[in-house]
Predict the structure.
Amino acid sequence: VQLQASGGGLVQAGGSLRLSCAASGLTFSSYVMGWFRQAPGKERDFVAAIRWSGGTTYYADSVKGRFTISRDDAKNTVYLQMNSLKPEDTAVYYCAADRSPGNWYTPNSYDYWGQGTLVTVSS
C-alpha cells in the first residue's frame, strides 16, 4: 500500500490550499481515509476523515467550516480543501487509511500512512 500526499506549500493567512492523497495497492473504496497534521514539537492531531462511499465525514473542531474532505473513488484519491487558513494551521499534513478504524480520531487506528506534505501559513 502506498499513499502519496501532495499540494502543500506556503500561503498567506486567509488563503486556500487543496491537498491530495493518491492511494495504490488497496481497494480504495473499502477504506476510511483520514487527514492528520503534526506541528513542530507537537503530537499528530486528527483533522478530518471520510467514510467509504463518501457518505460520512468527521472534522476536528478547529477546522470545521473551513476545511472539506472529499474522495474520488474512481481516481483512488482523497482531497482536503483548506480555506481561510490561519498561521496555527501550519504543520505537516498526513493522509491515512484503514478499513475500519477503531477510533477515527486517533492516529493509532490507521494502518497506512503517506509521507506528509508541509503546509506553512504566514501571518
The chain is about 0% helix and 50% strand. The longest strand covers residues 17-24.
